[in-house]
Amino acid sequence: MVNTTLMTSFLLMGFAEDPEMQTLCAVLSLLMYLVALMSNLLIVTVLTLDSQLQTPMYFFLKNLSLLDVSLVSVPVPKFILNSLTHSNSISLPGCAFQLLLITSFSASETFILTAMSYDRYVAICCPLHYETIMSAQACVMMAGASWALGGLFGALYTAGTFSVPFCGSSVIPEFFCNIPSLLKISCSDTLLAIYPSMGIGLCLGLFCCVCIVFSYVHILSAVLRIPPRKSQSKAFSTCLPHLVVFTIFMLSALMVYLRPPADTPPVIDRLPSVMYTVLPPILNPVIYTLRNGDIKRGLRKLLSALPTQWLPIM
After folding, report:
1. What is the pLDDT, as a whole number, of residue 209?
2. What is the mean pLDDT of residues 269-286?
3. Which residue of 29, 213, 249, 261 has the fewest CB atoms within a 10 Å radius of its CB?
4. InterPro entries from the entry (predicted)?
5. Which range has the worst mean pLDDT, 23-27, 88-92, 169-173?
6. Under a CB-based contact definition with an 8 Å cutoff, are residues 296 and 289 in contact?
7. Is the Cα torsion angle 239, 241, 242, 243 positive or negative in sign?
């Protein structure tokens, strides 16, 4: 018979045990968080205010930026606070809520990226029917379904994970609560409660990957048939950033959720978690801005208008 003790809190392992190093990690994390936050909010502001950027592609990009802000805002502020106060504890409800939000936003981002690939597929392969297929109502429905399905997926995963008791060590070898680490310290020999949500997650992930691969196979075939080289370059400039963003996000997620957790992982083993939660929100605005002339123009237009708006205040 297993001797179980009711856990009310967990310990999140950071990247250093020395108080001075913890403070340094907090400062670096704060800088990365501010970069991710400001760059994505700037993209959202430009896409909202610029009337020439009110297309389905930019509508989904706005949703992606909002999801990036939401995703990075769940684990990083808690890690910064713990590092500054030199306390690694997180309550059981706090851990469950953190897991719920991270899985929900991650799943929603996957669905949004799939919707973006479908938008590019329709734009390039079915240009004559683009406005009919990608109507404003259809875009809102796809975005709403992405957020809703992500929330449902996160709720299923969280309920399945926390339906089993936890015993033994209360240490989570990450800087945030994630599923592999929590399952490792669970007392249950059989994880029947988590199997349905794992199966659903695997099927949905594979479905999204297949849809994106299918879209880009047809996109590539259609683009190569376009005679003018300039038209090919324009088509690739709208598709390549999305493909790079999706690849970075999926690779970082696979490194977190599919790698076997070690008993006492070194600091280097926690870097995939940083890549998963911080790297995509920082890189996504850069990738889309560098390859997109419309967003660059919108950014210049917004920045040139800021001094004029501040003059009355100053």
Report:
1. 87
2. 80
3. 213
4. GPCR_Rhodpsn, GPCR_Rhodpsn_7TM, Olfact_rcpt, Olfactory_GPCR
5. 169-173
6. yes
7. positive
